[in-house]
């Protein structure tokens, strides 16, 4: 490729990253420089370059004096210069991210097989199916696995995505243009045209506010989620289905009717925990927006199918399944015309269009099941006439997958609420009904008895217009859920209870649901339309999770709920709050132990279950590579059913570009396939000494972590050295930064997300590693323990993932940068404490990994950082 584009020398600089990535970074940086020159002048560009060079040299040479020179230079700048400086570097980082995404796509294409004899791409569905086949998994076993696998990525509106949607759209256009410019067959004119278009987008990007001036509404957040569901997820689902169908054909030589393995869910518009802006009315609107979006997308797909299926039949020759389907739509014999497929598609479009105008009633309701039945009829008719290639590769195959995956609801909406809200509502309800005047003051055993009695009463507790004020909002939410289920049962996901501590915490929402008819008593049976999900968030709750579920399963009323739901239970684990509570190592070990215990308890009670992992984007909030986390789960928790949150900035990274979205989801499916089959499951240590050692490390690391954050001077230091007060005021989400007002907030009240944000801004990144050094230093006193940890690191996916993620966060940390924040307020004592722990952590980790530098075994990531 030419080394100059638009007058910019893009030649790779030999910095250790790949040549294509280096060239893309040089091109984007050069175009940004040209924008700065045009919009702000040559002096501003010189200033940006001066500071960039100083900071780059300071990092490369580890010279504090260079950082000091940069700091002194910045102090001399006026407001306009500072604003342009911030815009320039913010734009540069956004552009580098786009270059890195293109590099991911290039590497994935490079690793893809060019012919049948090439090995499959690592972590692909093709590779997973090959491994299953070579490990002795039979076709029958594979069919059983596929029937069970259920992977549910779940979008949330956690306030970790600071960028506006307009910024995300500009970045996507830049990524698309960069891909076009780098095409091997691009002509000189096409390269020039793409470069000009990128230049224009960069100019707009540098002139646009990155952060909103006003806090987004919940409606804005819902639309943001729908943007990704429409623009990428909708197309990814059939691609993944095609991947696995083709892989089974290649390795097993069989055509298998593969059920959808992926279904997406959402919390956006349903998660009201700590967010007073998520009202019942907002949730009702969200259900409607999801439904309308799904219907509009299906109409577009039917247009394409109509264009494709131009097959003509004489009236007497119409296949039976097609004739039956036409009759269901009121098309009488003789009216089918000579293009009966199109006639049926037209009828389907009319029914869906009618749903967009207003909901149909009664027998005239056209629902997702009827839609799928019509698609099946088209497929059967095509098969009857020998159009097998159309069934496999035509639009009908895609639309059947879309209909099975998304229905008319697009993504099932979960409802989440804090257990305290239910307690308040139930207290008021029981008092108004004359059942119990002092519910909140009673011990747990008595509360459970009161709730059992109320749930088994032959009548509900409230009547129209007779609802106590304290229970009104909570009950209205359940009424909205009931209405949504009546229109489409698939539209409603789970009901999740935050901060679940006691059995009563799940019986309380059951009682509220009964008031809306979602839970019903039929003789001696309970009927239930909802899955009630406990959320274990603190270290203590994670440690007690197994015992909690035993007690819940033994409760007579909850046993009836479980039976009503087909013996199925979903369980959610909170990664962010457990880290904030116990520190990095303890949180990871407590979560691993909880998964093991929950899997064993559910299996012991013959309960089918699904674990729901509330993972954030950063390592300190449970982030990291999702496929590695899946393979690291303990065997009792591996059953092919899994949910995981896709939060904030993670959504835009994983789902902004279709090919990256496809890569992410194929890695999820690949990991679940391999983790579900006993033949390919990762093996945990058989030696109990390994678990005892992990307990020791976790306890010691938590003590070190709590000694830091419980120090009498810590909180005052933290709120002064970090920009937490500024972060708390950023208008990046509809949800408040704390459940309490800003002036009353303390460590216990601050949410895990701004807690982690502030640490990242200062480059301490404490949630991703702190406590490791002290803990490991205590156990690495003898060579036998050192060797044991080295063996476990090489053979145990759990420990490998914990160490890899910690290394990555430490590699991103910069104690030299953090020192500037601490010196600014005279807080060097606390800084030295953190820096000393960092040095201990680095030394002990490198001893286990047998390396001389952090991320030595991941050179590409290390150089990228």
Characterize the structure shown.
Helices cover 62% and strands 7% of the residues. By secondary structure, the protein is α/β, with parallel strands linked by helices. Strand 1 and strand 2 form a beta hairpin. An eight-stranded parallel β-barrel has the order 3-4-5-6-9-10-11-12, surrounded by nine helices. The protein has a two-stranded antiparallel sheet with strand order 1-2. It is built from 37 helices and twelve strands. Among the domains are: 4-111 and 165-208, no CATH class; 283-406; 688-864, no CATH class. The model has no long low-confidence stretch (mean pLDDT 90). The chain is globular, with a radius of gyration of 29 Å.
Fraction in beta strands: 5-15%
Q: Whole-number radius of gyration?
A: 29 Å
> What structural class do you assign from the helix and strand content?
alpha/beta
| Rounded average pLDDT | 90
Show unreliable segments: none
Strand order of the largest sheet: 3-4-5-6-9-10-11-12
What is the strand tally? 12
Helical residues, percent? 55-70%
Quickly count the helices. Answer: 37
For the record, give the distance between the C-alpha atoms at the N and C termini, rounded to a whole number: 27 Å
Shape type = globular
Biggest sheet details:
8 strands, parallel, barrel
